[in-house]
Design goal:
106 residues, mainly alpha
Length: 106
């Protein structure tokens, strides 16, 4: 269950970050509310995951999910550009997350 909590925390991390972009500096109400609720919910699910997972592993994976998700959605939704070195680094983050999961004793 703790891995599910961590995945939910990661999804909510991406949700609030994308909503923040749509909030236009907190001047648009609905995305601003989604940002606040998503931020709190992400922290709650991370806290639940941390009851059973090591801090370094869980936090690295949570931030990694955020980096990967926001990078992909930035390209899709906002037409952000990624250079080849950036794509390589994101792939390395994916490898790191996979390694943390595979090598975790939980």
């Amino acid at each position: 269950m703790h891995w599910i909590f961590l995945i939910l925390a990661g999804i909510l991390e991406v949700t609030w970050a994308v909503a923040m972009k749509y909030s236009n500096g907190f001047t648009v109400m609905l995305p601003s509310v989604i940002t606040a609720v998503g931020y709190i919910a992400s922290a709650v699910f991370l806290a639940l995951a941390l009851k059973h997972l090591p801090l370094g592993t869980a936090y690295a994976m949570w931030t990694g999910f955020g980096i990967i998700g926001t990078s992909v959605l930035g390209v899709i939704l906002f037409h952000d550009k990624l250079s080849v070195p950036q794509i390589i680094c994101i792939c390395l983050i994916i490898l790191g997350i996979a390694g943390l999961k595979l090598l975790s004793k939980e």
